Amino acid sequence: MSLAAGTRLGSYEILAPLGAGGMGEVYRARDARLNRDVAIKTLPPAFAGDSNRMARFQREAQALAALNHPNIASIYGLEESGGVRALVMELVEGPTLAERLAGGPIAIPEALAIARQIADALEAAHDKGIIHRDLKPANIKFTADGKLKVLDFGLAKAFDADAASGNLANSPTLTLEATRAGVILGTAAYMSPEQARGKAVDKRADIWAFGVVLLEMLTGKSAFEGETVSDTLAAVLRADVDWSQLPADTPPKVRRLLQRCLERDVKRRLRDIGDAWIEIDAPEEPVAPAPPVSEPVARGRMWWLPWAAAVLIGGAGLGWGLLHRPPREPRTVVRWSYSQKGFFGAPVLSRDGTRLTTTDQVDGKYSLSLRMMDQLEGKPIPGTDDFVLGDFSPDGQWIASFARAERKLKKIPATGGTPITLADAAPFGATWGDDGYIVFSDGKGLMRVSSSGGTPQKLTTPDAKKGESAHRTPHFLPGARAVVFTIAGLPSAQIAVLDLKKGSYRVVVPDGQDGRYVPTGHLVYLRGGTLFAAPFDAASLTVTGPEAPVVESVATTGPDNAIAEYSFSDRGLLTYIQGVGQGSGTVLEWLDAQGQVQALSDTQLWGTGRLSPDGRRIANTINAGAGAASAGDIWVFEVERRTRQRLTFGGQNQNPIWTPDGRRITFGATVSGKSGLYSVMADGSAKAELLLATDSPPTPTSWSPDGKTLLYVQSAAGKPSRLWVLPLSGGAGKPAPLHDTEANETDGQISPDGKWVAYVSTESGQQEIYVQPFPGPGGKERISTQGGNSVRWSHSGRELLYLTRSPDRAAMSVDIQTAPVLHVGLPREISKRPFGTTWDPAPDGKRFLIEEPPGAQQFSRVMVGVSDWFEELRARVPLKR
Known about the structure:
By secondary structure, the protein is of the alpha+beta class. Helices cover 15% and strands 36% of the residues. A hairpin with a 5-residue loop joins β53 and β54 (799-803). α4 runs antiparallel to α8, α4 (108-127) runs antiparallel to α11 (273-281) and α6 packs parallel to α9 (229-238). The two termini are 42 Å apart.
């Protein structure tokens, strides 16, 4: 029987399914007593209804629960509620060894370190008389701190005391993806010969499985394979192990250990797993010299043998040398850096790596610079005033760029000249293909235009029903048959690939931005300030292996920070702008009615921040910029003293807002894979508390003045983002959508009197501001006339403030009267200055909190270059052979 999210099982609340196995289903659950997440494995009704089997199972489970070792996932106990019986286990987050092996073999030192931890876990269990019986890569997980945990110890016996008579294809420890082809086959591939024959087993069955796992780590291949379970079991029983697949530099001690573990005669097999780690820890032994060759008896009659052997060996060596030239030595990776006062960034290399263009800002004015890579510095390109974000033509002679004020895509000779207008466009990236066409974003979808000019062609339209707000940062794949691009919106940005022949696109990376194909066969993209890479098949347009971080601390630029500031040439030169901690980021400032600014903070990679009700503090996110596992934490910044205090530690914490009394801060977070709405004391006197668990990352937007209702935004996969109303009087109630609509809705803001709500909706086809009675009923009124987002109420409640759509993000104001009837004035511009993600009106109504890049006099940006970066990329993310 499947359990729905929210189901109670004793003190445990089911949160989400994790997988299914031959003997039950597995769920993530919340332990209300100990305030922790656990894994719940339900038992099939036929099993749970058998009193004899349940008695045996309970005895075995009690023995398993006694295991206490850092490399063993714990079993907490049994739970029975409402006719459902379940096993409660430690929830281990992180990838499995099987997922790690999908990327190919593991280096010998790392493989031995992993094997050492597996051996430790097995030894601890064997000392207590417990045998795993189903050891395999899928039952071995890596935690966030790099430790290893072996899962499901002894469950094979616990589920069936007569394991020898069980169905070998029905593994009770399959906790994840049991229905995927090859999983059951994989279980058979790790069985010992005595298991395959259905005989009784002892701890030496685990030693066999240990050897199979270690061999697979070193070779990247399963030792025993077959098309069916029967074929696989036959291979286990009879097939010879192919020792030639081991790396040539495998230490003799490891070869000897593998041979002893994989001895089919159980009496000749390694008897104790403790001997395995002793062998692993033993010092390396010298290679013995070849034994001397004895003199032949009939030397005189065989005088020609040495000469014939020399000729044969010489000829073979010559043939081998011609056919098998030694691989080239890897090139040395060299790093260099370049700094410059003021703002410069968005580096783009020509394909041959001889030219580099950057976007510069001097005295508030933008232009492009060109640096020949054999020169020390770049020079301004004549004719590029107000141009940003250039991209080279394939031959490096032209640059496609965006004129900001005109909102046009233009091309210009790389050395300067008269720009040629190609199309209306927004500065969200352009890519120049081998076919002579340029693909760019118009601020919504992707467009294509000939580099010679002509009528642009629409390629994509964001699906508002799925929560897509825009398609950005396109990059051609080789041959111009497909384009990698970013889908903005949704719970987080996604990387997709557009097949230009089929005219359709699909997501290939669910969390990332500004993805680009590398000639090495990798897809590289940004997440949380770090470049990640994954093997990518350009023919099938699919990711073919696990990702890994490759470059840390990469800055972003452009509207909404949509452009990752990195570029590489076809020859392996990488350039990027360093991120937070190296001079990039933004500063928080006061902006008054006269357009004057006053800096408040130092330079940081600030997220979306809000003023406290009294205007004396700012809640904000400071992004780590060093990996997805630490995307940002919530900080409180005191305006007068200019000090800050950290409130959260670890996880992805975003979009803080204040409670009406200013005592607490509400924010959305994903911690250890679990998303939800959280609340924390603004003075840091207590840890953050979970208000509501959600199945995707939420964004809190506004509290009602009485503190009893919270608005937040959430979108599930394939659905538009919705505004949800969460009652919190006397504890969290059941959330309900503000509207039942197919439009994308965000940024709900309750008025100071609590009677109205303003929000952003895409029901007209673009983002516009609306207002309606709250909580209702009543009709809505459109506030903006030419698009808008990031709406705010003035503290008096007599104005609605919002920003125009990207890239301008200028502030607008609309007078609003709510009594006796709603009356809305005309929008008027109150500031031409582009605002960042942080902005809020001060309580006095005379100034705004804003965020923008620091002035040229305040910092130097640093550009890093990496020569022969492809060598490093191949080593960090090996392709599957």
